[in-house]
Amino acid sequence: MKWVPTRLVLLAILATVFIFSFSALAGAADLQGKIVFVRDGDIWVMNADGSNQKQLSFTGKARSPSWSPDSERIVFLDESNTLKQVNVYNLRSGKQSSNRTGRNMVANSK
């Protein structure tokens, strides 16, 4: 039986808590009146009136976008390869950071 390294499991747990601790749901507006949503497997953000649409991911396998409590960042999952990534997009700077959580943890924990 193979064991997933403890740090990898901890990172996955923290990423899950981070993503689901935000109160906003995919498709919900933040305090600034912007909406984050999934279209064809990619993450998009737009103004509440539908204007100023901006694509944030380009893999076609992104999901679960959520707003940070300060409405300055969007966090989402990307499963474009065998690696899962937790991505954080900073709306103010336009920069995106990623943390890879490893291969499918369910398959590797067997």
Please tell me about this protein's structure.
The chain is globular. The strands form 2 sheets. A 4-stranded antiparallel sheet has the order 4-5-6-7, covered by helices on one side. It has a 3-stranded antiparallel sheet with strand order 1-2-3, with no helix packed on it. The chain is of the alpha+beta class and 110 residues long. Helix content is 18%, strand content 36%. It has 2 helices and 7 strands. It has one domain: TolB, C-terminal domain (Neuraminidase, 6 Propeller), CATH 2.120.10.
Instruction: Return the CATH architecture.
Output: 6 Propeller
CATH topology name: Neuraminidase
Q: Give start-end ranges of low-pLDDT stretches.
A: 17-26, 104-110
> Would you tell me the overall average pLDDT?
74
Instruction: Provide the succession of SSEs.
Output: HEEEEEEEH
Number of domains: 1
Task: Write out the strand line-up for the largest beta sheet, numbering strands in chain order.
Answer: 4-5-6-7
Q: Can you tell me the CATH class?
A: Mainly Beta
Instruction: Categorize the overall geometry.
Output: globular
Evaluate the radius of gyration.
Answer: 15 Å
Overall strand count: 7
- The helix tally amounts to 2
Main sheet specs: 4 strands, antiparallel
Derived structural class: alpha+beta
CATH superfamily: TolB, C-terminal domain
